[in-house]
Amino acid sequence: MVSGKLAARLAMLLLAASIRAAHAEPASCPGNPHALGVSRIIEVDPTGGPRFGTFQYKTTLELQPNEIVLTFDDGPSPKTTLRVLDALDQHCVKATFFEVGRWAEAFPEVTKAVADRGHTLASHSYSHPRNLGRLPLEQAEQDIDRGFTALKEASGDRVAPFFRYPGLNDSDALNAYLGSRNVAIVSCDIGTDDWLRIGAAQIVKRTLARLERQGKGIILFHETEPATARALPMLLDELKKRGYRLVHMVPKAQGVAALKPPGATPPPTSQ
Ligand SMILES: [Zn+2]
C-alpha cells in the first residue's frame, strides 16, 4: 500500500519531470544598474493540468531558496495595468498576468501590451464569478473556455494554457476539466493582501515579511489596484537589495490550440 507521504513524493517527482528549467542570459537593464532582472525561466508543461501553489495544493513550482515568481490578477485595467508594466520594465522583470476575458474584450490594447512587453498572459476566467466551482458545471466550463477565447483574440493568440481560479475557488470537477484540456492550474504561495486596500507601504511590508518567512514562492498581486502599482517600484528595489532572484514562468507551448485534446469539439462562441 502506498502511504500518503510516498504518494506525495511521487507526485512531486512527476511534477519535477514535467518542468524543464532553462537559464536565461543575464541581461543588462538600460538605465537601472540595480535592476532585479530575470534570473531564470521555468518552462511549464501543462499536460494533464498540474497544480502549483502551496496556498492550497501540495505541489508548487520548483523554486530554489530566494527565487520568486510575480503574478497579477483581475486586469486588464486601463487605469493601472500600464503603470504596473512600467514598474516591471524599470527592473527588466517578467511576470505572469491572469486576466479576465470580459475586460480583455473591453480593453484589448491593454492585454496586447502585456503580451507585447514579453510577459506571460494567462486566464482568470471570462466573467470572474465569485465561486466558479459552485456554478453549474457546464456554465463554469463555458466561462473558462470563453475567457481563453477572449484573451486569445485580444493578444493575437499569445495566451498561455495557465488558469487561476477567481478567489482561488476551485472544484474537483473543474480541476478535472482543466486537466483534460491540458491547462495548468496556478494558485500561489504568498499573498500580498493588496486587494484589502491597505496602501502601498503595507503591501511592501507584508509581502517582504511573508517572503522572509517562506524564503521563496509564487506571489499574488492584483494589477487593478492603484496601491499595487505604487508599491512595485519600492518592492522591486527592496527585493534586489535583499538578494531575491526573479523567475519567469512560461508555457512549454503557447496558444489556445494547445488546450484542446485531439478530437475535442471547439468551445461555444459568443456570437
Ligand atoms: Zn480575481
Explain what you see.
The chain has eight helices and eleven strands. With 271 residues, it is α/β, with parallel strands linked by helices. It has a single domain (49-259), classed as TIM Barrel (Alpha-Beta Barrel). Helix 2 runs parallel beside helix 8. It binds zinc ion (ZN). Zinc ion binds next to loops.
User: How many strands in all?
Assistant: 11
CATH topology type: TIM Barrel
**What is the overall pLDDT average?**
89
Q: What series of H and E elements makes up the topology?
A: HEEEEHEHHEHEHEEHEHE
> Over all CA atoms, what is the radius of gyration?
18 Å
Total number of helices: 8
Q: How many strands, which pairing sense, and closed or not: the largest β-sheet?
A: 11 strands, mixed
Strand fraction equals: 15-25%
CATH superfamily: Glycoside hydrolase/deacetylase
Bound molecules: zinc ion
Count of domains: 1
Distance between the termini: 52 Å
Helix content: 25-40%
Defining traits:
271 residues, alpha/beta, TIM Barrel, eleven-stranded mixed beta sheet, 8 helices, 37% helix, globular, disordered C terminus, binds zinc ion
Write the layout of secondary structure elements.
Layout: H1 4-18, E1 19-23, E2 40-44, E3 51-52, E4 67-73, H2 81-90, E5 96-99, H3 101-106, H4 108-116, E6 120-123, H5 137-155, E7 159-163, H6 172-180, E8 184-186, E9 190-191, H7 200-214, E10 217-222, H8 226-241, E11 245-251
Parallel strand pairs: 2-11, 3-8, 4-5, 4-10, 4-11, 5-6, 6-7, 7-8, 9-10
Antiparallel strand pairs: 1-2
Helix pairs in contact: 2-8, 4-5, 7-8
